[in-house]
Structures are given as C-alpha cells and as structure tokens.
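In full, the data:

***
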Amino acid sequence: MAISSHPQYESASYQACRPRYKASLVDAIVIYHQQDNPQPATDLGVDVATGTGIFARRLATRFTKVIGTDISASMLEAARAASSEHPNIEYIEAASEHLAAINDHSVDVLTAATSAHWFDPEKFLREAQRVLKPNGTLAIIGYNGFLHFVDYPQCDKVSVSHCIGFNKLKPDLGQDSGYNLVAKMYRPYHRILARAKWTGIQRRIYPGTIEDEPLPDAPPIVSPEPVVVEFEATWRKLRDVYQTMSGVVQYVQSHPNEENPADVAVRDLMATAGATDLDEKLRVQFGESMSLPSYYTSSETTIPVDQLKDASPEHLRLYYAAQVSVNPNLSTPSIPASIPKLYTDTQNTEGKHMALMAVSEYQGMLQNFFVGLLNAKRIVEVGTFTGASAIFFANALKRNGVAGGPDANGNKPIISLDISEKFADIARKNFVAAGVDDYIDVIVGDARENLASLAGQTFDIAFIDADKPSYEAYYNTIVENKMLAKGGLIIADNTAFDCVTPFIGTQGPIGDDVAPLKVSFPTEMAIGLGLSEAIGRALHNFNEYVRKDPRSEVLMLPLFTGISLIRLLDA
C-alpha cells in the first residue's frame, strides 16, 4: 500500500509542495496518441493513482471526460476540492491494478504520473490492456529525487545519498517498495511492455546523464529540455518536497521524536554548497522519463463483454481468439520463449503495418495443434517473413519428438521459401535465437519455381502465406506433384482479408442468409499491408477455385484474417 493512503498523510502539503507537471506534457502525449492512429479520439482520459488530481486537471483541458483514480480517500477528497473548475473530472477510489468501474476498451489515454513504482507492473499493464481502446495510449511518466544542481554539482552525490528512502541517515528506514523502479526511471516496465506486444514504444528522458547504461531494447530519446515537470527551487522548497516523499512521511510517523530526515538532507546539501540562505533560488534538474506505448487490437475482434450475448458465432470466435492472443500471461508450451522479442524486433525494424504479417500467438498455437493432430513430421511453408510461423511449427515438431538436422537425403524437417534475402537473413537469426535452426532450411528465390523443385518430396503440412496472387499456383503445384502426404493438410492464410469482401455476392458457400466474414483493418493499415483491389480479387478467385475443385475439400475458419484448411480427397 502506498503511504499516501494512510489517513495521516497530508494531502494539502503534497499538493502545495510537489513540482508541477508542465502544461506542454499533455500536448506531447496527445500528439503521440494521434500520430499513426486511425482513430485518435480524446473522449476519455484516465489518470491512475491521481493523488490530489494534479495531473488529472492537466488532462481535463484536452479530454472530453477525465477519470482520476486513487486508493486514498483523503487524497481524492483534496482532489475534488481542487477541481471545482473542471466539471468533466470524476474521481473514483480504486487500485490501479483493479479498475472495475471502468469499462473494457473505453479509454483513449491512460496515464500514471510519478506513480507506476507503486504498482504490480504485470497486473497494472494487464488492466491497462483491458480498459484501453484499440490503439489506445499508455503514458508512464515520472521524475526522481536524484537532482542535478546546475550551480552546485558537488551536491549531486549528496542528493542521491539522501533521496528516496534516506537510508544513509536511518538504516532502519529502508527503501520504498518502488525504489528500484524510480531509481531506474521505470526501465523495468519496458521488458514487460515488449513481451506483452505493446507497440510504438517511445521513451524520453531528461537530462541524458540520468542513464548510465541505456537499455539496448529501449534506447531513450534525450530531450534538450525538461518535458515532465517545472520547479522554481529554493533550499526551503526543496526541503518541503522531501517532506512529502513517502519514505520520509513513513519515518516521521514511526519516529515522531527524532529529527525529520528532510531537514537533515537539506542541511547537508547547503553545507556542501556553502549556502546559508534557505530562500536562495536554485537551478536544479530532476531526472525525468516518459514512456509512451500503444496497444493495438483489431477493432473487429474487440467486443465488450456485455455485447457478447448479441454477437454472431463468427464474432464470438474472433473475440475469444483475441482474448487469448492479447493475454501477456498466457501459460502454454505452445508459445516459444523467443516469440515476444521477435514481434518487438519486427515492429521496431519494419513498422506496425508490416509487423502484422507475422502470425499471432493464437494462430501459432493453432498451427501447433495441427502438427500434433496430424502427427506431422515434415512441413513446407511458402512465405518466411521474419520466421514466426516456422518457429511455431519447429517448436511443435520438437514437442512431437521429431529430431532436428538433415535426414538421409539432406533435408531438414521444415523447408521455408521466401523471395527476400533480407527477411531470410532475419529469420535465420531468429531461428538461432529460438534454438530451432537445425529444424528449418530457408530457400530464397521465386517460390513458385522453388516449390516445384521440391517435387518428389512429401509433406504433412503445407502452409501458404506469401504473395496472394500466386496462391492458386502454389496450391496446384502441391496437388499436381502429389507433395501432400496421406492425411496431410494445406493451410492457406489471409483468405478473408477485407479486400475480398467486395467480390462476394449474396450467394456463396456459407449460405444465402449469412453475411460473409468481415475482418476489418483501419484504412491506413490496409494500405500499409497492400490490401488492394487486385489482392482481393486474387484471393476471391483462389477461394472459389478451391471450393469448386473436385480434388479437395476446404473449410475456412473465421479467425484472424481467415484461414482455409484444405485436404485432398484422394490422399
């Protein structure tokens, strides 16, 4: 529990003494939220652990409605008293990890202003995913007490030794529960954000000297000036700030007859500076950081729970698929440990649009299921990209007891075809990182020619996920060359992309009275993925060709962007 929830905590002192958040900070968050966002709404902003509502009031100038939450009733009472000029703010008593009063997928921007060190990071981020809209933004903002004294740099080390916990003065004081998170400026959150598939992560810091060892997976953007707080400092005001720090408050409550650690700290600082005037103006710089990730979920798969009773079976399948796909704590041997980093690297190097080409965790789990169901031993895939699908397949083969390495004919269990040497190189590195490089051969070049060159080999699964106009050619090459083993399966991905919809009439294989499956992408993402009319026509033609082909039968699963399962009738 944060010390601010204690009834003796002086909310008035906290509100009066703390540094002020810069007015431009909210503008920076909104600019981030609106860039590359097809639905950049500012209807609802939520500030968790809002305290006396300092940052909630900043948000109120840019959002139609603001909700501030906190576990301290006294803090919220002070927040309401200070927010009379902001009728669009509602304050709710709630823990940041349990925002039960806030509906699923209703929040545009969620902020944690110098508070995230109090949270259970895993639980908080999971709750943030629940309440944020698709492409919603999370802002983790903070400053620490490791001050840089511009005119008295000799005071910097003294400041570090006294701030946050003041454990140099009183050994029994210890450290705040969030000491490491604040000291590291919330860097530990970044590994969780990456693992949980947050995208577009930006991390801004000021000054650049606060980070001795930058995270290689989250290098900071160093701001040329403060972005988080502004503070007109004197020695007296600095003492007042220290007195509101939770470690100091806790110590004073436990040791009422001993000297306040804030007084001792400022006395030491002034002695080090050779200063005597408590009201001397100071130039100080707080260590600051602002982390800005967004969380993408397809709006078509995000259905509020209270609407599930009215959802179609197709939407229900999409909903439950999405819930599994976005769960950061999904515990299953079907998801290789290297996959979250692969997703993050792909997003960082190829961009959000291209990253959507990688199969999701849930689709990878489905592929794994088919490997086990068919007792598959060999797989060919057309379309490698950065290697996610091949890694899922290899992981499933390994669990199935299939050994890696070449067989008697020099062939590994999986052959993956791609036209791009760039992506083939990335995929090979990812295979090594996943520990499955001995299971997969990548062949670069024209996939139609290279697939035909494999005639004479048989495969239990053929996975087609490459250039859409060539799907029919890939399918025919496999069928005509008898490359599918008895009981084998062809899996064709993306067969229900939105761009297919205009070519589907009211008559079709799914019945006259049932609307065709529609899996939506925002327009910008559709353009980024190249979902053109030509692609839609090609996929529709492939779907019709396979449906009418007497050699096979097909079932399209209304999951993700459509997965067609094809088995040969004479195999």
About this structure: The chain has 20 helices and 21 strands. The radius of gyration is 28 Å.
